[in-house]
Amino acid sequence: MPNPLELIFDEKNLVQKIQRRLPYLFQLAEIESSRAGKTGMEAGSVREKIIVALLIYKFGEENVDTNLPITNPEADLELFNNPISIKTITRESFSGIKLIWTVDAQKAAEFQLNYKPTCDLLLVQINWGKMGGLFYFPLENRL
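The structure assignment produced for this chain is given below.
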C-alpha cells in the first residue's frame, strides 16, 4: 500500500486545488504575520497550519494528530500514526532549511552535526512570481 502522503500528488483535482489555493493562503499568512512591511518568522507557523488543514481535508481529522509535544525537534504531526515534519522555505534555491529554531548558535551547530532524520518530510517551497513546489521526502528515501 502506498504511503498516504503520496496520494496527494496522484489526485489531479486535489493537485489543481493545491496549485490554485496554496499561493493565496500563503500570501494571507504573510500579510497576517507582517509588521512594518516585514514578514515575521511566525509566518512559518501559519503556513504549517495551512498544510495541516490540507491534510485534515484530505485524510480526515481522526487521522491527523497535531497534539505532539512542542519539545519534539522534528515531527510536527502524525498522519495515520506516522510522524511528519513540515518545512516551508521562501526562496528560489534550496540553499538551506532550518533544522531547529534556537538563538543559541552552539546548540544549533550541535543539533546539525548529530542530526539524523526520524520522520517523513513535507517541504513547501514558496517562490513568489515563479514556480514553487510541494515536495514529499519519505524517511526511507533519506536514510
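Interim note for the steering committee: Residues 4-138 form a domain with the ECO RV Endonuclease; Chain A fold (CATH 3.40.600.30). The radius of gyration is 15 Å.
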